[in-house]
Amino acid sequence: MVIGIVTVPGSAQYIAAEKFKNLVEERSNGRFTFDIQHSASLGSESSIIQQVQMGTVDVAIITTGPVGNISKLANA
Description:
Layout: E1 2-4, H1 12-27, E2 35-37, H2 45-54, E3 59-60
Parallel strand pairs: 1-2, 1-3
């Protein structure tokens, strides 16, 4: 499974991605494994959101900025 983030190793988002990855892999006894794609290797946050919608990325750790472009509720 793929986790997409735009930030670099050591950032808060990367640390959160690592923690999520480790917890899920451990608690699923290895049934779920993750590859963290960082440093915008998958594109911008908006691009990563689109990839989640298409099913090519499984988890995205993003800021709230681009969420308003896909959900009017986020702008309320």
